[in-house]
UniProtKB/TrEMBL annotation:
Keyword Repressor applies: yes
Residues in HTH tetR-type domain copies: 12-72
Pfam family, one: TetR_N
Transmembrane segments: none
Species of provenance: Psychrobacillus faecigallinarum
Name of the protein: TetR/AcrR family transcriptional regulator
InterPro entries in alphabetical order: DNA-bd_HTH_TetR-type_CS (IPR023772), Homeodomain-like_sf (IPR009057), HTH-type_Tx_Regulator (IPR050624), HTH_TetR (IPR001647), Tet_transcr_reg_TetR-rel_C_sf (IPR036271)
DNA-binding region(s) from the entry: 35-54
Taxonomic lineage from the root: Bacteria, Bacillati, Bacillota, Bacilli, Bacillales
Alphabetized UniProt keyword annotations: DNA-binding, Repressor
Statement: the UniProt record of this protein carries the keyword Repressor: yes
């Protein structure tokens, strides 16, 4: 007998609660410190319920890191490196990225774990690395276009893009302010300077 719409919705909701609980636990207690039992308790579901959705802890961790990537990618890459008004595009891009990263501190904690132990999590790292390469390539294109139009000073676009993507993760992990704090907007002017905007 097929599941009803209500049953499907309940299952989707329960699965998301499990994922949210696992994200928090993996971010705060690490991979080793997180157990299926702890996830079940945090999600207020039975131990067996977790296995309804995930084969084991490894699959749960993979899902927690990889599943949000598509939505995150769509938001992060939503800038135009060929925009006519590149300076305005740069400022809007930085504002969007800083505010976006401000809201995903637990997720970024997972990213740092995977990158720091990439040999242990090769499948997850491969997905994150592909996203990072695509992100960096698009930022590099924006920088090159800005330099070609004499809007940015000449410097290595790869280095600038690497510093920029690193900065986004770094300021979130080193700042305890909540996502609604005006503190985040104060980072924007200094971040713009990173790109070497030509003052002439």
């Amino acid at each position: 007998m097929p599941l009803s719409e209500k049953q499907i919705l309940n299952m989707q909701t329960r699965r998301q609660i499990i994922l949210d609980s696992a994200t928090y636990l993996f971010a705060t207690e690490g991979y080793e410190g997180t157990t299926i039992k702890k996830v079940a308790e945090a999600a207020k579901v039975s131990f067996g319920s977790v296995f309804t959705y995930f084969k084991d802890k490894e699959e749960l961790f993979y899902t927690v890191v990889v599943e949000p990537l598509e939505e995150l990618s769509n938001q992060v890459l939503a800038f135009n490196p060929d925009a006519k008004d590149l300076l305005n595009e740069l400022e809007n891009m930085i504002k969007t990225h800083i505010r976006l990263y401000a809201g995903i501190n637990n997720y970024l904690g997972l990213v740092v774990q995977v990158v720091g132990q990439h040999q242990r999590f090769p499948r997850v790292f491969e997905k994150l690395d592909a996203f990072h390469d695509e992100f960096k390539a698009k930022v590099i294109l924006l920088i090159k276009n800005g330099q070609k139009n004499n809007l940015f000073i000449q410097q290595d676009p790869y280095i600038v893009a690497t510093l920029y993507t690193s900065l986004l993760i770094g300021i979130r992990l080193n700042t305890t302010d909540n996502v609604s704090s005006i503190m985040w907007d104060r980072f924007i002017p200094s971040t713009i300077h990173l790109f070497g905007v030509n003052s002439k």
